[in-house]
Amino acid sequence: MTHVQDPVGSLSRQIKCVIWDLDNTLWQGILLEGDDVRPFPHIPKLLRELDERGILHSIASKNEREPALERLRSLGLEEYFLVPQIGWQPKSQSISRIAEALNLGVESLAFVDDQAFERDEVTFSVPQVACYAAEDSAALAELPEFMPRFVTDDSARRRSMYQADLARQAVEADFEGPKDAFLASLGMRMTISPATEDDLQRVEELTVRTNQLNATGYTYSYETLRGFIRGGDHQLLVVELEDRYGSYGKVGIALIDVRDGRRWLLKLLLMSCRVASRGVGNVLLGHIANQARDRGVARLCAEFIKTDRNHLMYVTYRLAGFREAGQAGEAQLLEMPLDRRLDMPGYVEVVASGLSSSAGSQEVCHG
Amino acid sequence: MMANADRVRHVLSKLTRTEGLANDDDIFGRGFLNSLNAVQLISLIESEFGVRVEDADLDITNFRSVVAIAGFVAQKTGAEERTS
Fold first, then answer.
1. Is the CB of A279 inside 8 Å of chain B's CB atoms?
2. Cβ neighbourhood burial of A193 (10 Å; 0-12, 13-18, 19+)
3. Predicted ipTM?
4. Is B36's Cβ below 8 Å from some Cβ in A?
5. Which of B17, B39, B56 sits opposite A315 (nearest CB)?
6. Is the CB of A345 less than 8 angstroms away from the CB of B30?
7. Whether A242 and A288 share a structural domain
């Protein structure tokens, strides 16, 4: 299982969200004409199956909003749909709103409708969206664009993580007060632990999905990663974040070359873009620096390879206190002085389990 | 310099939603800024003060507090005046 990272754009299309019409697409009949509408027989299973693969669902329907939602509720299907757009606006507009609310590129959206007119309107205004006729919907799950390269624990939780994100966004938009008070109100808890074999698929997935917050762009095969966690030369750390709205899932990884007990080298640091506004990158770097210092490591270095998308990560490193320290092959070398323990911000609780170094240090927990 | 500090405080208030930053408050340590809005901060400083922040300038000591940013801007504008 070896994956080579394709350049962005040459990746074959992967659908991240399916946007459904309702009348004669999701259910049989027309709600406003008084039909006792029922979902087509294949629909409930299809919704569930795509949901478990981490593909989201939404709605673009010309209908009265409340009766339509009420019907979905009584059919037990409402929970599947994020930010449903039910009203009389053009469907292209509904689709653009969904893309914005979920922070998804329109090229990752699919639209299913029984009316050719509606599909044409969407194709005309948002040509990147993949459109499917309702009569073809039974076969969607078999199409390659609906088969993600990775299906992990986080895939199955993706919908609930988006729901939690939407709840947070609503609270953040209404929050009157300084940013640090908002962050504190989230009650964030960040768990940093050594990767286990169960984590490796998610680690691979993160290296492939993350562009903006990836320090080197290195990708590693499953076998290489397994070698790292079995051998003593590297530390592979996985970061999970949760707050009072729920879990963000596994959102970050760090790979540290610890062969030289005096000098640790960060080979890879990446964070999911969903948590970029949470200050998590700084906290992780600060934690690693403090761990290094506690173990008598004299120098903490990091490799950075500039791409056209990862300037954010460079800024993160530099403003966390890393300085430029020459070149190492194609990578730029950054170094953080370890002259003092770093204060960790009060708005996030860090729970760290056993950064069990090859130097044989004890397990350390920080509250 | 003090006039600059007030302008810096104003720029920061756009990102942190707080008017009351003291000159020496550690804006990163208190969680006001993170990788995402640090990038916004840098472009705001560039547009507000007409300076260019190079990679080499991205030292935390230049951006840690209101006073640090004001000093950085003063040094940049001074340097740019001398070279032009």
1. yes
2. middle
3. 0.71
4. yes
5. B39
6. yes
7. yes
CA neighbor of A321 nearest in space, from B26, B47, B13 = B26
pLDDT in tens, A157-215: 899 989 998 888 888 888 877 777 788 888 999 999 999 888 888 888 777 766 667 77
Domain match, A58 and A129 both:
yes
Domain annotation covers residue A10: no
Domain count, chain B: 1
Give the model's pLDDT for residue A64: 95
Q: Do A179 and B15 touch (CB under 8 A)?
A: yes
pLDDT in tens, A49-86: 999 999 999 999 999 999 999 999 999 999 999 999 99
Size of interface A-B (CB pairs under 8 A): 75
> Residue A327 corresponds to which amino acid?
Q
Is residue A5 within 8 angstroms of chain B, CB to CB?
A: no
Q: Domain of A24: which CATH number? A: 3.40.50.1000
Average pLDDT, chain A: 86
Record the tokens describing residue A220, joined without a space.
């590693």
Task: Assess if residue A4 is contained within a domain.
Answer: no
Q: Which domain holds residue B42?
A: 2-83
Query: Are both A73 and A132 inside the same structural domain?
Result: yes
Provide the token pair at A125. Answer: 């205004």
Give the type of residue at B19.
E
Domain stops at, among A118, A146, A174: A146
Q: d(Cα A156, Cα A158) in Å, to the nearest integer? A: 6
- Which residues in chain B are contacts of A316 at CB distance < 8 A? 35, 38
Alpha helices by DSSP H, listed for A62-115, are: 65-74, 91-102
Asked, for residue A269, whether it belongs to a domain, the answer is yes
pTM of the model as a whole: 0.72
Helical segments of A274-361, H only: 280-294, 311-319
Q: ∠ at Cα A270 (A325, A195), nearest 5°? A: 110
A142 and A203, same structural domain? Answer: no
- Contact at CB, A319 and B37, closer than 8 angstroms: no
Closest CA–CA distance from residue B13 to any residue of chain A (Å):
9
Out of B16, B55, B60, closest to residue A179 by CB: B16
Residues A306 and A158 occupy one common structural domain: yes
Q: A239 and A190 in contact (C-beta within 8 Å)? A: yes
Q: Tell whether A128 and A171 lie within a shared domain.
A: no
Domain that holds residue A179: 153-352
pLDDT value at residue A4: 39
Q: Which among B15, B34, B55 is the nearest to A282, CB-wise? A: B34
Tell me: do A159 and A206 sit in the same domain. Answer: yes
Residue A7 falls inside a structural domain: no
